[in-house]
Amino acid sequence: MAHKKSIRKHIEVVAAIIRKGGKIFATQRGYGEWKDWWEFPGGKMESGESPEQALIREIREELSTEIHVDKFLHTVEWDYPEFHLTMHCFMCSLTTDALHLNEHEAARWLGKGDIHSVRWLPADEEVLPLILKELEVA
User: Which of 63, 19, 36, 25 lies closest to 120 in space, CA to CA?
Assistant: First the structure.
């Protein structure tokens, strides 16, 4: 009898690294297995959306604000126990100062000196060295 090979679930998401001056915006998860861990806001792409379109929609839904997608930074490939994550990270800027946490329990603006002061999700943590380089560029 042939055994079916188990195929791991694959999730593809986009993440906004929102920069304001020398700081980036971090959000704390308020639900699920990774509750209280920190991440960059974003979410799953919908069928037919470009990563940039998905990011603008997700940030509108999660933070009730508008962003400009400035540039692609990095794609993280990460194996979590339950699934494989592909996360496309983009440097972004706010086009308005209004921010409202619709899904997260907390948020902080973090600079170079305190970027490691929160407990990042493993996939998000992988991109921190690239972000630190970005923050060095005025």
Answer: 36
What letter would DSSP give residue 120?
A: B
CA 39 to chain centre: 6
Q: Where are the domains of the chain?
A: 9-136
Q: Does domain 9-136 have CATH number 3.30.450.80?
A: no
- Give residue-wise pLDDT tens across range 62-85: 999 999 999 999 999 999 998 999
Task: List Cα–Cα distances, 13 to 1, 23, 70, 104, 112, in angstroms.
Answer: 37, 23, 17, 17, 25
**CA distance linking residue 14 with residue 55, whole number of Å:** 6
Summary count for the chain: helices (H), strands (E): 3, 7
pLDDT band at residue 125 using 50, 70 and 90 as cut-offs: very high
Residue 12 main-chain phi, psi, to 5 deg: -115, 125
Distance CA 66, CA 94 (A): 6
pTM exceeding 0.85:
yes
